[in-house]
Amino acid sequence: MARLATGGLWPALAVSSAAAITCAAAVGAAAQTQLPGIVITTPSPVTRLAPASPATVPQAVSPAPPAEVALPALPVVAEDAFVALTVVPSREIAAATGPNLADSLQFKPGITGSNFAPGANRPIIRGLDTYRVRVQENGIGSHDVSAMSEDHAVPVDPFAARQIEVVRGPATLRFGSQAIGGVVNAINGRIPDAIPPRGFSAEMRGGIATVDAGVDGAFRVTAGAGNLAVHADAFRRRAEDYHTPLGRQLNSFADGQGYALGASFVGKDGFIGVAFSSFDSLYGIPGGEAALEGKRIDLQQNRVQSRGEWRLRDMGIDAVRFWLGASSYAHNELLLPEGALEIGSRFTNREAEGRVEIQHLPVRTPLGELRGAVGTQVGDRNARGISFEGDSLLEPARTRSLAVFWFEELQATERLRLQAAVRAEQAKVDGVGLDAADALVPMLAMGERSFRPRSASAGALYELPLAIVARLTAQYVERAPADAELFSKGAHEATGTFELGNPFLTLEKAHTYEVGLKRSKGQLRFDLSAYYTRFDGFIFKQLTGETCEATLVSCSPAGAGGELQQVLFQQRDAVFYGAEAIGQLDIGRVGRGVWGIDGQYDFVRAWFDDARDGNLPRIPPHRAGLGLYYRDDAWYARVGLLHAFDQNKIGENETSTDGYTLLSGDLAYSFKGDGAAGAETTIGLRGDNLFDEEVRNHVSFKKDEVLQPGRSVRLYGVVKLN
Fold first, then answer.
1. How do the domains of the chain map onto residue ranges?
2. What is the reported pLDDT for 79?
3. Which residues, including other chains, have CB under 8 Å from residue 358's CB and lie 6 or more apart?
4. Neighbours of 655 (CB within 10 A)
5. Over the stretch 93-135, which tens digit does the pLDDT of each residue have?
6. Which of 383, 386, 384, 361 is nearest to 372 (CA)?
7. pLDDT digits over 314-358, tens only?
8. What is the rounded CA–CA span in Å between residue 36 and residue 592?
């Protein structure tokens, strides 16, 4: 195979746009009678600031969450959000089984998981995944290669998170155009922003599960005095091959561990801090040849983050905030062909990212009070995928980005709020890609692609009678192709594919409109959303029908072919539309508590716009669920059914998938020790797939080879000291 450096640049592509808009503010679901309400706080780019206090750093004004010991989270309805927002609190994370963020999210409306392996389960939001879903920790990207392939894990363990948020819609582009589908943000206190009220706080959590003999545990400690706060946390988990209704799923084990250390200087006008964290994971790839060969991935990442805030409140500036992060990531894809480990390929990524936001003081205008912020974001990523058995999937590729954004919120009337935002960015991607000028003689060429996405969005909230709030958002989004989409050109054994990037891809453009109704107060609480998105130049992986060995030459018409399916990155216009609904009704009192019902429903349809019957592959099926719950200050109990319908709207070279019904149950008891500083303890028992159904996830590349876990019971506990 000839390797030719052509010199010069790839043809530069012109401008595009991507929509960025404000994030949601504090959210909560109100409980009735005298029970404490379920309130969950989320950050907002347009932050309403509290008065400064000499003792602690002031936080965004929002309802203070009650102690989580009393009530595990029920479905939450955002009280002040312009888009649908999903929040998973600490208690729900502790009850869930699995080492991935998606394990705690995949049965929420509009969200599922890729389910490639127990150790690699990436969130899919409204049918969109990989480079359209950004996963981050405390506002900084996860800095991995999980979007490059479904067998790659996200190096953020849910046990390291106090809370997981999923933001859809315009708010996502505050973090970049690579988040059209949504943002999954793991929030933790590794960089303390305040001194603990009593100078010390701690939490321990852990559990055991029957389906995979899983054992896990974690702790976090934060202490402080004067102006110094320090933090430490660690986790460890181990799980063997899990059981299915048809027996054990070979090579489905997953082990992981990690730790973090952080410190902050806290003053009356803000804080500044830094944290170091380390993450290690070893997991198997189940299904087919991967299981027979004992394929596994050994992953390690070291990460440094810094965050700070200065509440100036002068010269027209309310506050200045920054987020910085840098990481070193690597994983080896290992084989056990004859009992001896061999490295088949190695993936590395070194990445740095920073964001600064300046929030201006509220401005009173003839149209109403105006609040907003302006910011900038920079990024530098160096990724590589090396193969030791054939041509490398990705030669060194560097991505550099620079963006500026500006968003404003206007309180036009007592009932009407408006938002608008713009974002402009520039991305340059250097790499080595396929020059397809002569199909019989594959050539490689070095070059650079440059993109200039620009964004705009708008939204409105209007308060209707009966405490119902209507919302409407519109956005125009453009996404620059990622390094792997442009420059892939090698074998990927774990997925059984030979991937060919397209260096001539253009910007992916999306027009999205969303309407919603919500009610966050009263006995009946609900959130209903419907959306429509039209993509111009939707980037996807197309199976060509050709086969390859591990080299590029074998993929050409003159080659001999092989066992790997050839995949080519292509672009076509596409349409997505769907709806999501979640609701909760407190019916009445029983003893000291309240019982009620909850329900959910979601669906998404997607097809290529140039052929109405050309369905996109791997689109989740319709799902509907119903639950019955009881809660009081000490007890929480819930039993629920979630049904996934058959998926027959399938794409080219795809097979249909049967539906399934999941029965789940949760029982938890919480109590508090003596004294104001007594420990808050929760002990719970959770059951999943209690019918022991044969479950195949339609969005998983492994669905025809791998069953999802069967009946599982998990005993878990949480101890908190504040």
1. 15-721
2. 58
3. 317, 319, 320, 373, 374, 375
4. 11
5. 999 988 999 999 999 999 999 999 999 999 999 999 999 999 9
6. 361
7. 999 999 999 999 999 999 999 887 767 889 899 999 999 999 999
8. 12
Can you tell me the distance from the alpha carbon of 98 to that of 105, in angstroms, rounded to the nearest whole number?
11
329 Cβ contact partners less than 8 Å away, ≥ 6 residues apart: 143, 144, 145, 155, 299, 300, 301, 348, 349, 350, 351
How much is the pTM?
Answer: 0.87
The DSSP letter of residue 117 is B
DSSP for residue 161: -
445, two tokens: 């060429």
15-721 CATH = 2.40.170.20
515 conformational bin, left if phi > 0, alpha if psi -120 to 50, beta if neither: beta
User: What are 564's two structure tokens?
Assistant: 């790997």
Give me the DSSP letters along 688-721. ESTT------TT-TTTTT-PPP-SEEEEEEEEEE
The pLDDT of residue 31:
32
Taking Cα atoms as reference points, which of 508, 455, 496 lies closest to residue 128? 508
| Token pair recorded at residue 341 | 């480990």
**Spatial contact of 73 and 92, defined as CB atoms under 8 Å apart:** yes
Decide: helix, strand or coil at residue 418: strand
Query: Cα–Cα distance between 156 and 564 in angstroms, integer?
Result: 31
Contact predicate 634/648, CB 8 Å: no
CA distances to 235, 396, 484 from 155, rounded to whole Å, are 13, 21, 19
Whole-number Å distance between alpha carbons of 623 and 600 = 8
